[in-house]
Structures are given as structure tokens and as C-alpha cells.
Amino acid sequence: MKGETLGAFLLALMIFSFSISLIPLSYLSYGSSGEIVRLGKNDVEVHMDFGILELSETNESEPYALIRGSVSSKEGKVEGSIGSVSLYIPEGWEGSVRVSVRYGIVILNGSRMGELNVKMNLGLVQGEMVALKRVLIDIGSGTVSLMLRVQEGSGVMVKLDCDRSYLRYDGGSLRGEGVEMMLWEGRPLLQVYVKANVAELNIIRMKG
């Protein structure tokens, strides 16, 4: 990573940490009960200025969210200025989740979805998920650490636009500033695009 880029990235992280420290703990506290909102069967959108989003699986038939802080929900959209959102995705759900957070963290706990689209100015995306169609992550300044599980027989196209990236997959690994390659031919085709300062991506084909 170039010295100028690293310096700017570290400065951005310092500003981010300071900004988060100014948020009243009552907004982000996991100790508060929060509010459960039903999101219907359609695609889900989350828009926040500052916040934490966590995605997990549920045995419910439709997506729902537990929201805390200055956050509200309307017609399948969760919107707010400062808060935390715990989003629960049904098993086998093939919809899409679109996330727009200016400063924050997105945590993935193994949920399956058709598409994940994350846009952030500054932050972190980490965890694991089952991806079917598209994974699009665009972070102005930040880090991505992600394990993607894909269906056996699926094709996978990967593009990493980063200062530093590390890709591991069944059959090999690549390290460098950027990566663009077709890992496997097949249908359906999974498209993966990550833009961040640093990205570590591990892609695993599921059996059966």
C-alpha cells in the first residue's frame, strides 16, 4: 500500500473512531429492547448515517429487523441517522439486501441471499454468507473480510479493486492490489465486486 494511501486511510479510521465515540451509548446499546419491524417478502433496504448492521438467519417466513436508536421502518425500508439494526433473513430466501451507511460496520452471520449491495463512505464489512447472484461492496475507506459460500456448479466472477487484496478459493490463492478473473464456469453465475482499501476474500464451494 502506498504511503499516501495508508496515511489517508489511518486518518480516516481515526476520524471514524472519534465520530463513533460521540454517539450516545443509548442509541447503539444492545442492552435496550429495541423494536421489531416486519419487512414483508420483498427486497430489503437499509439507510443510515452512523450505525451497525448485523445480518443473521431465522426460521421465520419473512425478513424482519430489530432496530434501536434513531431508526424507523416503512414499506420494507429501514432508515435513520444513528442506530443499530439486526436484520434476520429466512432460510432459502433469494431476495436482495441493499445497504447504504455513511460510517459504520456490517456483520454477516451466514445468511443466504440472492444479492448483497453495500455502499459506505467509511467502515468495515466482515463475516460470512451464502451468495447466489451478486455481491457488490463499495467502501470509500475501509476493510472487507468475507467468506463467501457458493453453490456447487455455480460460476464465479471476481473483481477486487483494492490497495491490498488477498483472495483464497478452492484450488488456489492470489495476492495483490487488484484481481479480476473467472474462478469457475457454471450456472448460475455469481458476480463478486469489492472496492475497499483492504480486502480478504475466501470463496468456498458447498457440496450437494
UniProtKB/TrEMBL annotation:
<keyword id="KW-0812">Transmembrane</keyword>
<keyword id="KW-0472">Membrane</keyword>
<protein>
    <recommendedName>
        <fullName>Adhesin domain-containing protein</fullName>
    </recommendedName>
</protein>
<keyword id="KW-1133">Transmembrane helix</keyword>
<feature type="transmembrane region" description="Helical">
    <location>
        <begin position="6"/>
        <end position="28"/>
    </location>
</feature>
